[in-house]
Amino acid sequence: MLRRAILATAAAAAALFGAGQPAKAGATLDAIRARGQLVCGIHTGIAGFATPDARGVWQGFDVDFCRGLAVALFNDPNKVRFSPLSSSTRFTALGSGEVDVLFRTSTETMLRDVTLGLRAITPNFYDGHGFMVRANANIAKASDMAGATICLIQGTTNEMVTADYFRSQNLQFSPVLFERTDQAAAALQAGRCDSFGTDASQLAAIRSAMPNPSDWTILTERFSKEPYGPYVRRGDDEWYDVVRWYVNAVIQAEESGVTSQNVDEVKRTTTNPDTRRLLGVTPELGQSLKLDPNWVVNIVKAIGNYGEIYERHMGPRTPVGLARGPNELWTRGGLLYALPMR
């Protein structure tokens, strides 16, 4: 029933977006420049990815990717308006033109890419579905949760992943669906659920914000591939190209050893042809996207390379405390890999 409901929702969304597609080729980039501001869809609030600080200023991994894109377009990280969106409204908001791009903990899947009138760009964070339980619950693995009540976020891939797992094990469970992550976390702490099922990075973020994080355990098993990445509307190749190669540039900067501290020196001294292209010494990359030749230099100065962004918001020295793992560069055993920028 859950799978059929998700497919029906996807089909309805596809009909909606296909009937009223607001973008044509080039329209999004032109509209953003005319407006003088990028509108970026983000999470309603989860540690590490997107949360307002004490002054109400949004901070996080996804937030910095939004700011970096604003730098690519305007050379100004402040020329972005953040639109917090729930899991169930994020794709509708993008499809209707409410936001220009989603950087919002959104798994890139085939059905989302081909049925919603949207395009998944390229992964910028690799994750997997997991479960969090009370540390004293005597639960070591997911199969110990037969008959459990599990908190889930409506409109996420985690609904299907959880249902598929329990069905495959011939186990019963009771889902309790919530609109927002904070609602599910509160229900878990109040004892309404035995477990919370969502992506491991989000479980770590949720646990870090709890009054007593040590009271909770994230089970070591992973039950899915959850590659997060940005989404844009289908049918605007120019805007798709800008966002796609922007993400690759942030990753490539780390691969090339370019940081916020050394970018000017590397640009001045490098003899590596790929790095010279990346940093605009030869201007063809920026020109191909109708961007300033120094677009990557400006981005790295403002937000850093991929590793700097990750360590600032998700790394071991943060409350979230996640090692790079699959989000390490491919040269260091991870999955992160920039497409050739030439």
TrEMBL record:
Keywords: Signal, Transport. GO terms for biological process: amino acid transport. The keyword Magnesium does not apply. Residues 1-25 form the signal peptide. Residues 37-266 form the Solute-binding protein family 3/N-terminal domain. The keyword Signal applies. Belongs to the bacterial solute-binding protein 3 family. This is General L-amino acid transport system substrate-binding protein. It comes from Muricoccus roseus. The lineage of its organism: Bacteria, Pseudomonadati, Pseudomonadota, Alphaproteobacteria, Acetobacterales.
